[in-house]
C-alpha cells in the first residue's frame, strides 16, 4: 500500500508498480511545463491524476465560490488540458509514456453534481483530445480515457485507490 | 396575495397530500406522473374561484377537462364512493371543494364574499399564441377539447397594455426581454406579431422559444404580472434552447423580487441549476420534490436549498448518464 498526499487529500494505492508525486521539486521544469499531481504506474497502464480541493478548510469562502463558478463554466478546462499534455510530453521525453494512459481529475467539492462532472468529462474528452476525426491517423492515442470525479464518485469507481480527506 | 398551502385528498393521482408554498418562487420537480401539473392546476383553479361566477369545482373541471366534464372523474380512481377534496389557502383565507365519484356535473357553490382579489396566470407547456386567431370565439361557441388554461392564457395575453408601468423593475424587465427577442409584441385582431424596425413578424414564423419570451413580455406589459399576482408555468424549458434558460430565470427572479409569486414545474437540470446559481440570500425560493413512495403514493418534500432536493429525478437521470459516460471513457481501465 502506498499513500500519497496533496494538501488535505490522501490517496491510498494498491497494486501499483510505481506511484509518485509528479509536481514536486524533482520535476525541474515547472517554470515552463505544467504538471499533474500524481503519476501511478500499473502493469498495463498509467494513471495521470490531478486533484483540486475547493473544499479545503483554508480556502476562503469567496475563493471557493469563484473556483466553482469558473469550473462549472468550463474556464478550468484549458488548465486541466495543459496539465495532462505537458505531463505526457515530459514522460514521453523521459522514455516513458509507453503504456495506455488514463487521466483522472478529482474535484473535491462535496456538492459537485453528476451533471457538472458529466459536462466537464465531455469537455476534456473533446479537448485533450480523446476522440479523433477519421482524417487523423495517429498510431496510438494521446490519452486512453479520462474522467472528472468528486470524492464519492471517485471512491465508487476506484475502490483500489480510494481518496480521503485528512483531518 | 400568495398561495400558501394546498391539501388534496383522493384527488386525481393524490391520496393525501399537503404542501406549503413559498410566497416567492416554487420550483416543482419530480418524475412523470407525480402530479406536478395537477398541483399547479388545482392552485390555479382556486386562484380563479369566483371569477365569471364560477365555483371551484367548475373551474377545476374547466382546467382539468375530465371526460364528460364530470367532476366526479377528478376523484381518485377506486375512491369514488369515499369522495375527494381540494383545499387551497391564500393568505389566511381558504377555499375548499368536496367531490364525490357520483358527480356527473360540477357542484355549484356560492362565491365567498371574503375571497381575496387574486390575479393569476397559467402558462401551459404548449404555447398558444401562434394559434390564437379564431381560437377564443371557437372556444366560446363550440365544445372544443382544450383545457381552459389555453383559453385563459389567450384572454390574458389579449389584454391591452397598461397606459404606464409604475414599477421600474418591470420596465427594466421589458427592456431586457425586448433586447433578447429583438422587438416588442403587438396584437392585431387576434394575431400576435414581433415588431421592430424591420417590420412585423407573425408569431407563426417566430421561433417557439421567442414566442414564450414574447408571452412573458405581454403579461408584464399589460399588468397581468404585477405585485400580488401568481404565475404558474408548466415546463418553461419546453421548446427553449438551454442558452435562453438564463434569461428565463433572470425574469422569474426579478418578478419574484417585484412581488409576484411564481410556480413552475420542470424536468430540466439547467433550469434548476440556473436558479441555484442566480438566487441570492434575499430571494425566497422553495424546491418541492414530488415522488412516489414504496406504496406508489405521491409525497412531497420541500426545501429551500437546491442541494437538499430529495429525491431529485433530474439528478438521478444525470447520475445514470454520468456513470455510463465514465464506463465508456474509462471502460478499458475498469475492465
Describe the structure.
The complex is a heterodimer of chains A (167) and B (335). Helix content of chain A is 30%, strand content 26%. Chain A has 167 residues and is an alpha/beta fold. Chain A has one domain. In chain A, strand 6, helix 3 (114-127) and strand 7 (145-149) form a beta-alpha-beta unit. In chain A, helix 2 (77-93) crosses helix 3. Chain A is globular. The mean pLDDT of chain A is 93. Chain B folds into two domains: 1-119 and 230-335, 3-Layer(aba) Sandwich (Rossmann fold), CATH 3.40.50.300; 126-225, no CATH class. A six-stranded mixed beta sheet of chain B has the order 6-10-11-3-12-13, with helices on both faces. The radius of gyration of chain B is 21 Å and the shape is globular. In chain B, 46% of the residues are buried. The A-B interface holds A 45, 47, 69, 72, 100, 102, 111, 113-115, 117-118, 121-122, 125, 130, 144-147, 149, 153, 157 and B 269, 273, 277, 307, 315, 318-319, 321-322, 325-326, 329-334.
Which band does the percent of strand residues of chain A land in? 25-35%
Residue fraction in strands of chain B: 15-25%
What structural category do the secondary elements of chain A indicate? Answer: alpha/beta
Oligomer: heterodimer
Q: What is the global morphology of chain B?
A: globular
Number of helices of chain B: 10
Estimated radius of gyration of chain B: 21 Å
Order of helices and strands of chain A: EEEEEHHEHEHE
Overall helicity of chain B:
25-40%
> Radius of gyration of chain A from the CA trace?
16 Å
- Unreliable spans of chain B: none
Kindly report the greatest chain-chain contact and the residue count on each side. Answer: A-B, 23 and 17 residues
Secondary-structure arrangement, i.e. CATH architecture of the largest domain in chain B? 3-Layer(aba) Sandwich
Q: What is the element string of chain B, with H for helices and E for strands?
A: EEEHHEEEHHHEEEHEHEHEEHH
**Residue share in helix of chain A:** 25-40%
Structural class of chain B: alpha/beta
Q: Low-confidence segments of chain A, ≥5 residues, pLDDT <50?
A: none
Q: Quick one: biggest sheet of chain A?
A: 5 strands, mixed
Q: Could you tell me how far the N terminus lies from the C terminus of chain B, measured between alpha carbons in angstroms?
A: 59 Å
Amino acid at each position: 500500500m502506498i499513500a500519497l498526499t496533496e494538501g488535505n487529500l490522501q490517496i491510498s494505492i494498491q497494486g501499483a508498480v510505481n506511484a509518485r508525486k509528479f509536481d514536486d521539486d524533482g520535476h525541474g521544469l515547472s517554470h515552463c511545463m505544467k504538471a499533474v499531481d500524481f503519476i501511478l504506474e500499473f502493469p498495463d497502464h498509467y494513471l495521470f491524476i490531478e486533484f483540486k480541493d475547493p473544499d479545503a478548510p483554508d480556502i476562503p469562502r469567496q475563493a471557493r465560490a469563484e473556483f466553482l463558478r469558473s469550473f462549472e463554466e468550463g474556464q478550468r478546462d484549458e488548465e486541466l488540458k495543459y496539465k495532462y499534455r505537458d505531463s505526457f510530453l515530459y514522460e514521453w521525453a523521459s522514455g516513458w509514456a509507453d503504456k495506455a494512459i488514463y487521466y483522472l481529475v478529482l474535484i473535491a467539492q462535496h456538492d459537485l453534481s453528476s451533471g457538472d462532472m458529466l459536462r466537464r468529462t465531455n469537455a476534456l474528452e473533446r479537448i485533450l483530445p480523446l476522440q479523433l476525426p477519421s482524417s487523423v491517423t495517429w498510431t496510438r492515442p494521446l490519452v486512453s480515457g479520462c474522467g472528472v470525479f468528486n470524492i464519492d464518485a471517485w471512491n465508487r469507481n476506484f475502490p483500489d485507490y480510494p481518496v480521503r480527506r485528512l483531518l | 396575495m400568495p398561495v400558501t398551502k394546498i391539501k388534496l385528498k383522493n384527488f386525481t393521482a393524490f391520496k393525501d397530500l399537503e404542501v406549503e408554498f413559498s410566497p416567492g418562487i416554487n420550483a416543482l420537480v419530480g418524475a412523470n406522473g407525480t402530479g406536478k401539473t395537477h398541483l399547479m392546476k388545482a392552485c390555479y383553479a382556486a386562484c380563479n374561484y369566483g371569477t365569471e361566477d364560477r365555483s371551484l369545482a367548475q373551474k377545476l373541471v374547466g382546467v382539468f377537462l375530465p371526460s364528460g366534464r364530470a367532476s366526479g372523474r377528478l376523484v381518485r380512481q377506486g375512491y369514488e364512493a369515499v369522495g375527494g377534496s381540494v383545499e387551497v389557502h391564500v393568505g389566511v383565507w381558504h377555499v375548499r371543494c368536496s367531490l364525490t365519484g357520483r358527480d356527473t356535473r360540477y357542484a355549484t357553490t356560492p362565491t365567498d364574499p371574503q375571497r381575496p382579489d387574486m390575479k393569476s396566470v397559467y402558462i401551459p407547456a404548449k404555447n398558444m399564441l401562434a394559434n390564437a386567431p379564431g381560437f377564443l370565439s371557437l372556444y366560446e361557441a363550440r365544445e372544443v377539447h382544450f383545457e381552459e388554461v389555453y383559453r385563459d392564457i389567450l384572454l390574458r395575453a389579449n389584454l391591452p397594455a397598461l397606459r404606464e408601468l409604475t414599477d421600474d423593475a418591470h420596465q427594466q424587465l421589458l427592456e431586457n426581454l425586448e433586447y433578447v427577442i429583438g422587438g416588442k409584441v403587438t396584437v392585431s385582431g387576434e394575431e400576435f406579431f414581433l415588431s421592430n424596425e424591420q417590420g412585423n413578424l407573425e408569431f407563426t414564423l417566430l421561433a417557439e422559444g421567442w414566442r414564450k419570451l414574447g408571452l412573458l413580455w405581454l403579461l408584464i406589459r399589460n399588468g397581468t404580472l404585477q405585485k400580488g399576482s401568481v404565475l404558474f408555468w408548466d415546463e418553461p424549458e419546453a421548446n427553449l434552447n438551454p442558452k435562453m434558460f438564463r434569461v428565463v430565470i433572470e425574469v422569474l427572479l426579478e418578478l419574484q423580487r417585484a412581488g409576484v409569486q411564481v410556480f413552475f414545474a420542470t424536468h430540466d437540470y439547467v433550469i434548476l441549476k440556473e436558479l441555484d446559481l442566480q438566487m441570492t440570500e434575499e430571494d425566497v425560493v422553495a424546491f418541492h420534490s414530488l415522488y412516489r413512495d414504496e406504496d406508489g403514493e405521491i409525497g412531497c418534500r420541500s426545501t429551500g436549498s437546491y442541494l437538499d432536493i430529495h429525491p431529485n429525478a433530474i439528478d438521478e437521470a444525470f447520475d445514470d448518464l454520468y456513470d455510463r459516460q465514465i464506463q465508456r471513457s474509462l471502460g478499458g481501465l475498469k475492465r
